[in-house]
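Retro notes - structure team

What went well: the batch runner handled both jobs without manual restarts.
What didn't: labels got mixed up in the shared folder, which is why I'm recording both outputs here explicitly, each with its sequence directly above its tokens.

Job 1
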Amino acid sequence: MANTKPINKTATIYVRVSTEEQAREGYSIPAQIEVLSQYCRLYNINIYKVYKDLGISGKPTANRHDLQQLLEDSEKGLLESFVTAYVTT
């Protein structure tokens, strides 16, 4: 990772776990939030909000309440950017 830190950036965090296996393998919601929060601290990114969908399959996205809320907030101009982790097992 680069040493350059963005100044006054704001991002939202989006996390999701769809299976118990993912949670057991270290991809739990708290683990994802911790890793992404560390990333934000490293790059001096303020966290606006954390969106999370628990136990919901990746498709269809209409069933992912917090993802839909994130998209609505983005359309309203409330979000500058977001960070997420890609997890596959």
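Job 2
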Amino acid sequence: MNRGSSSNESSGMQMSRRRHKLPLITCTECGKHTVGEYEVKTDMKGNKGRIFFTCPARKRDGSGCPFWYWEEDYEKIVEKQKNKKDKHSESSPHLAIHDEDTARSGFMQVSHDIEQIVKSNFEKLNKTLQNLFKVFCFLLLCMPLYKPCICQPPFGSDLLS
């Protein structure tokens, strides 16, 4: 996952490879972003090489989203969230869980996008049909002008008989 130039990378902290293959969850504080996994690259208070997880909305000065945990604490959060989901799905499987909410949100966005495309294409089709109707009306109005020409025999056909 390439994170570009986030504030965390510019401070000597970079995304790391997962050691324990912990899943990257949606931030439990703001609920808007997927948290990122980083490794301390500088020797700050003996923490070089330690893994931490933080929300991309958290700024280096600590403002923004408060989600920030060392790997061992993050692992507890993930486990707690997993247990909560397992318990929730056992007790009431018909209720929506986090992943279903995410899917529903994505479905609603796609549905809205499709609706906009259909509406746009319908408007274009409507304009095209209006133009065709105008051409058709014009041709109907012009038909009486051409009728005498169509009904008369060609010039000189009486000479052939």
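One thing worth noting from job 2: The radius of gyration is 34 Å.
We'll revisit the folder naming next retro.
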